[in-house]
């Protein structure tokens, strides 16, 4: 997936001047003016994983490229009125942009989107209670609040955190990968077409990586639309004993389009290949 996106990026990218402006993200959509036939680079607080242009009438007028590092590159081919674009960041938050292309628009080259700072009220300092003297007769196993048993269960990790951990290995810089008690697990590369009901013959499925996190197994798969029709993600079409599943792009465009592939994250209580056995 990365190689395909990186190749497209190097075919598209030009030399970019260093001039840049900052725009603060607030509660309302940000208006972004685009000069015609000029390339604009938009950098978000977090890497972007997916974009959606709401006004499809302007799709042919706007050329957009989402780089592997989550930076968005835009170029308007002709003038168009305000068109809303929704960008989803890797942390799940969305940024709403109102794009407007004009011949006389200022060419900012690079736009840095930054979060609005929130001034929190100062916390009142609480007086610490006076520590009680240690009981000299307390048994050793009760001192320092140590558990009576030697083993201690691992902290619970929610499914959203696990999914973000898996996606981060294939989207965005490695510095955003969280530290989790994850152990890589080998996967079988056998045919997985039977895993998806109804539209399984329209996609190609490639297992990428699997980890064991506490008592669960997290699996990341690459899904390619090999048909000439759109394919919409539906968890009910997945076979097997699955506890949780998520995807980045819910509707895959027909083969050959920019959004004809996506990642699936699947959480099971046993290894993936065992969970989908018929």
- Number of DSSP helical runs: 3
List segments where confidence is low: pLDDT < 50 over at least 5 consecutive residues: 5-18, 146-153
What topology, given as strand order, has the largest sheet? 1-9-3-6-5
Q: Any idea how many domains? A: 2
One letter per element, helices H and strands E, the order comes to: HEEEEEEEEEHEEEEEEEH
Provide a descriptive summary of the structure in words:
The protein is mainly beta and 278 residues long. It folds into two domains: 2-115, SARS coronavirus X4 (Immunoglobulin-like, Sandwich), CATH 2.60.40; 159-275, no CATH class. Helix content is 9%, strand content 35%. The chain is built from three helices and 16 strands. The radius of gyration is 24 Å and the shape is flat. Mean pLDDT is 80; it is low at 5-18 and 146-153. This is DUF3438 family protein. It comes from Phocoenobacter atlanticus subsp. atlanticus.
Secondary structure topology:
Layout (H helix, E strand, L loop, with lengths): L1 H11 L7 E6 L4 E6 L3 E5 L4 E6 L8 E5 L5 E5 L3 E10 L4 E9 L7 E6 L43 H10 L13 E3 L18 E11 L2 E10 L5 E2 L11 E4 L3 E2 L8 E8 L3 H4 L3
Organism: Phocoenobacter atlanticus subsp. atlanticus
Protein name: DUF3438 family protein
Pfam families: DUF3438
């Amino acid at each position: 997936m990365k190689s395909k996106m990186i190749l497209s990026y190097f075919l598209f990218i030009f030399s970019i001047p260093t001039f840049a402006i900052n725009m603060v993200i607030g509660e309302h959509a940000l208006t972004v003016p685009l000069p015609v036939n000029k390339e604009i680079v938009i950098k978000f607080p977090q890497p972007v994983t997916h974009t959606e242009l709401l006004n499809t009438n302007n799709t042919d007028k706007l050329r957009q490229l989402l780089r592997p590092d989550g930076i968005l590159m835009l170029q308007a081919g002709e003038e168009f009125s305000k068109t809303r674009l929704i960008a989803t960041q890797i942390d799940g938050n969305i940024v709403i942009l109102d794009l407007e292309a004009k011949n006389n628009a200022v060419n900012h080259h690079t736009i840095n989107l930054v979060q609005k700072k929130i001034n929190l009220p100062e916390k009142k300092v609480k007086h610490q209670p006076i520590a009680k003297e240690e009981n000299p007769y307390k048994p050793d196993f009760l001192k320092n609040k140590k558990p009576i048993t030697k083993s201690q269960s691992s902290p619970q990790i929610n499914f959203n955190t696990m999914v973000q951990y898996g996606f981060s290995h294939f989207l965005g810089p490695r510095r955003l990968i969280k530290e989790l008690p994850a152990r890589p697990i080998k996967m079988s590369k056998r045919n997985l077409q039977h895993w998806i009901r109804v539209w399984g013959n329209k996609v190609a499925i490639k297992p990428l990586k699997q980890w064991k996190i506490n008592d669960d197994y997290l699996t990341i798969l690459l899904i390619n639309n090999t048909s000439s029709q759109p394919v919409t993600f539906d968890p009910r079409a997945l076979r097997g004993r699955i506890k949780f599943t998520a995807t980045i792009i819910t509707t895959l465009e027909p083969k050959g389009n920019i959004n004809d592939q996506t990642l699936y994250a699947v959480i099971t209580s046993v290894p993936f290949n065992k969970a989908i056995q018929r």
